[in-house]
Amino acid sequence: METVIPDLVALRPLDGELLPALLAAAVAGADPHEVMPQAGDDGPAGWTDARREAFLRFHRSRSLGPGAAEDVYAVVVAETDGTGQAVETVVGAARLAPGPEPDTVEAGLWLGRSHRGRGVGTSVFARLVDAAREGGADRLFARTSSANAATRRMLTAAGADLERHGDGTVTAWLPLRRPA
Question: 125 in helix, strand or coil?
């Protein structure tokens, strides 16, 4: 697997034009439970028509409608195709939402399987940290599962303090204010 050059990773604010590409990336490279809460536990595993519709409804209501609850970004990677031409592809999503405490933001990120382990997540997380700082937050909060070693490494490398919980989750706090 080739490492993606961080400069070729961009965050684009999610809009109606990017939403179908985001759904396609989710269907091609992620489980519904990885990309949205309450993915619909009824029925067969995988991306049913109902789960695809739920994904679209979820994003329309959380980030595209009036009074959006969070800022959601499509993760776009530019790579060369077989002819050497640059092709931009939506490979996941990132978000910043109000955090659980005042002056905090919560970060979230998912990537399609084919882009994991290639430096994309680390690049995206650095951009989320910058956006949170620019937005005036004092701290960034994130959560993952204790089984997600790659995310735990990324959070630790960024300077976050991690705390393991008995339910299998890990929470992380990253100070955003640089000392004067």
Answer: helix
DSSP label at residue 168: S
Identify the pLDDT of residue 39.
57
Q: pLDDT tens digit string along 145-158?
A: 999 999 999 999 99
Distance of CA 27 to the CA centre of its chain: 15
Residues 115 and 29: beta-carbon distance below 8 Å:
yes
C-beta separation of 96 from 79 below 8 A: no
Burial class (CB in 10 A: 0-12, 13-18, 19+), 32: buried
3-class secondary structure, 111: strand
The candidate with the shortest Cα–Cα distance to 140, out of 123, 150, 127, is 127
Strands (E), the chain: 9-13, 71-80, 86-98, 104-111, 139-145, 161-164, 169-175
CA-based nearest residue to 100, from 57, 140, 51 = 140
| Tens digit of each residue's pLDDT (9 = 90 or more) over 83-129 | 877 788 999 999 999 998 999 999 999 999 988 888 899 999 999 99
User: Exposure of 120 by Cβ count < 10 A (0-12 exposed, 13-18 middle, 19+ buried)?
Assistant: buried
